[in-house]
Amino acid sequence: MRVEGLSVPYTISTDNTLSLVLLLCSLLLIMIVMHSRNVLSLRIRSLFIHTTNLSNYRHTKSDKRKELFLTALSIMSLSLIGYSAELHYFGEPLATNHYLVMASYAGIFITFLLLKRLLYMLTIPIYCNIQQWRAWYHLFRFTTSLQGLWFLPIALVNVYFGLSAPTTLILAIIGITITFFVRIYNAWSIFFKKKKLYVPFFLYLCTLETVPLALLAGTLTCVAQTLKGA
User: Fold this and answer.
1) What b-and-e string marks burial along 15-43, b requiring 16 or more CB atoms within 10 Å of the CB?
2) Cβ atoms 96, 119 nearer than 8 A
3) Residue 224, CA distances (Å) to 103, 156, 172, 214 in order
4) Nearest CA-CA partner of 183 in 151, 144, 212, 125
5) In sequence order, which ranges of the chain are alpha helices (DSSP H)?
6) Tens digits of residue pLDDT in 86-128
7) Angle at CA 203, nearest 5°, toward 136 and 220?
8) Whole-model pTM?
């Protein structure tokens, strides 16, 4: 029964535009996985054994486009997850457009990735050779894009099957944590293991991995509170 004067709460599942985008992205993701499953499997295994061999992997233009698409997919999915967490923990920002809220989260994640890449480019080449830098650069790009395979299904289940916001957020944090430890393990293997540089490794862990994640979490919380007060 419809009551005059009461607006229907906005939900992503009833947003035809976003639903169409998510459907197309899901189909493209399935096509990429089916077409590149052998390469993906090989590169995932290379994250745990013989990491420096990534420097010898030849990235074609098609590979770069796929990585870029998966990275964009990861950012979009995290934006939807962030919007879901915003509604659950802070309530709906009535004075703010829904797309603007999602775009705000997307902008934060894009800025985070760009700044982190800049930090890597400024610091890592100081204490590594070109082969190690290439291995790490390919690793960073691949692990970033790989998150799209994890975050999109979580976002879809949250939007269309009613997965609770806390559970969704926990699953997203699990994905981020796995990426965090994979990068730490590979950083140790590539840069510090042979020379047993424990102090530089600790500095790397704090300045290039832990602190940026803490700043990201703080920024997301501040933005969520600001949008609530909008």
Assistant:
1) eeebeeebeebeeebeebeeeeeeebeeb
2) no
3) 12, 21, 17, 15
4) 144
5) 16-46, 61-90, 98-123, 130-160, 165-187, 198-204, 211-228
6) 888 877 665 567 888 889 899 999 999 999 989 888 888 777 7
7) 80
8) 0.85
